[in-house]
Design brief:
alpha/beta; 8-stranded mixed sheet; 15 helices; 17 strands; elongated
């Protein structure tokens, strides 16, 4: 959808009626065009280039950037070089993580090969034995069963996959087959490594029910479970950090703002929107703000290994001293902010409550022409900051595009209008804090007064 903007004065007056802008904003909205052109937002907005962001995405999305790979390292170097070229102090922050490589799996039962899938963290092994139906695999289901040396056939439901495997293993099972309780494939995890696990695989609902029916009729069914080539490897990823120190040193607030995104992608996906778009917006805001007068420290950070469980952002937050955590007044996370096929821009917080980041951004959205809503969602790099007591929000278009986490997440699906929209809002909100003619923000207070904005039901769609 192409976003066409109305004249500034008319737009802000209309927005004030729609979302209940406080008197201060209503007055700002009615300012004559000449005065409006001097608004502090324009110092940022007029310099933002959607073409620059698009070009960054074109470079980054030339190939998947899976954490720990050479392609991700190439992206890290590109990002650091761009930030350095803008004059920033930069740091490439390495960290190690465990990467799980899925095994090859195969299942035969009664002489028939069945389609199967693996569970993350299942151990390798090849087991041939008789099948025994073990219900839902709860401790109460298996406590009186003789599973020694057998393969336990277990239905999905009630408890985690890992618990099912441990319960069956504790009862003597040599392998476990878990079948679905609904149509479709199981894409599951055992949660973590455990020396007590036995090889585990997944089957469809139809195949599992057929095996269960045969066992209930008294058939003896021999099966083979094969799990091979799964492995856990220690690998290295990186965060990229650029710091803009206050230019107004005599008036410096001693506060910190963080603007973030993640540069890795999932295997097989070029990640144009997820999240080269967020990285591109981060780079463009860093360029725009490089020479702007500020009284607040701004850190532009791109995180590695987000797709593997927010690993990079947890590493970054863990690296902060308590003093730094106390001085961070807000964290803006941009993740998937450029797809033409996604919905409207939404702000998500971990607890579903408004905070200084959402308040300032909602106000910026009214001023720039995109009134915002907010909701509750984790699943991105704002989470570790929230858990450290730092106000944070995720900016994402919702619902997400159909190409999410697929090879179709490519440059041709990117909307320059949506990139511009997000960069304008985040840039205007951040500069509202960082510009030298505003008082310092107290973490426990919200200033300036927020506009009214609505909460949506549910998380990311």
């Amino acid at each position: 959808m192409v976003i066409r903007k109305k004249p500034l004065a008319a737009l802000l007056i209309a927005a004030s009626l729609a979302v209940g802008v406080p008197a201060a904003y209503a007055k700002e909205a009615s300012a004559p065009p000449a005065q409006a052109q001097k608004a502090f937002d324009n110092k940022i907005i007029k310099k933002i280039s959607a073409d620059n962001m698009y070009n960054h995405i074109a470079h980054l999305a030339a190939e998947p950037r899976v954490a720990g790979t050479e392609a991700e390292w190439n992206a890290v170097q590109y990002i650091e070089a761009r930030l350095s070229s803008y004059g920033y102090e930069t740091e490439i922050q390495p960290f190690t993580f465990e990467n799980y490589y899925a095994p090859k799996v195969a299942v035969t039962a009664g002489g028939e090969a069945l389609s199967s899938s693996s569970f993350t963290y299942t151990p390798n092994g090849v087991v041939t034995a008789d099948l025994v139906y073990a219900g839902l695999g709860r401790a109460s289901d298996v406590e009186s069963m003789d599973l020694a040396g057998k393969i336990a056939l277990v239905q999905r439901g009630e408890i985690s996959f890992g618990e099912k495997v441990l319960n069956a293993a504790n009862a003597g099972a040599s392998a476990v087959i878990i079948f679905n309780n609904a149509p479709g494939e199981i894409n599951g995890t055992l949660g973590e490594t455990n020396d007590n696990y036995v090889p585990a695989v997944a089957l469809s609902q139809d195949d599992g029910e057929r095996l269960r029916a045969g066992l209930s009729e008294g058939q003896t069914i021999s099966a083979t479970v094969s799990v091979t080539d799964g492995r856990i490897v220690q690998e290295t990823s990186h965060n990229v950090v650029a710091v803009k120190k206050p230019t107004q040193k005599k008036k410096a607030t001693d506060q910190i703002i963080v603007v973030g995104s993640h540069h890795d992608s999932v295997p097989g996906a070029p990640g144009a929107n997820d999240d080269a778009s967020g990285v591109a917006a981060t780079l463009e805001l860093a360029r725009v703000m490089a020479n702007m007068p500020t009284d607040t420290e701004i850190r532009f950070v791109t995180f590695g290994a987000e797709e593997l469980g927010l690993v990079g952002s947890y590493e970054y937050v863990d690296s902060l001293s308590q003093d730094e955590r106390d001085r961070i007044v807000g964290m803006w996370q941009m993740d998937m902010v450029g797809s033409r096929d996604a919905g409207d821009l939404v702000m998500f917080t971990v607890d579903g409550e408004k905070n200084v980041v959402t308040d300032l951004s909602a106000a910026a959205g009214v001023r720039t022409g995109t009134p915002l809503t907010y909701g509750q969602e984790g699943r991105s790099d704002h989470v570790p900051f929230y858990e450290a007591g730092i106000p944070a929000a995720l900016f994402i278009h919702n619902p997400v595009e159909p190409w999410y986490h697929t090879p179709e997440d490519t440059l041709d699906k990117i909307s320059k209008e949506k990139l511009q929209e997000t960069a304008e809002i985040v840039g205007a909100a951040v500069y509202r804090i960082a510009r030298p003619d505003t008082p310092a923000l107290e973490r426990s207070k919200v200033a300036p007064k927020p506009v009214e904005y609505e909460k949506i039901v549910g998380g990311i769609q």
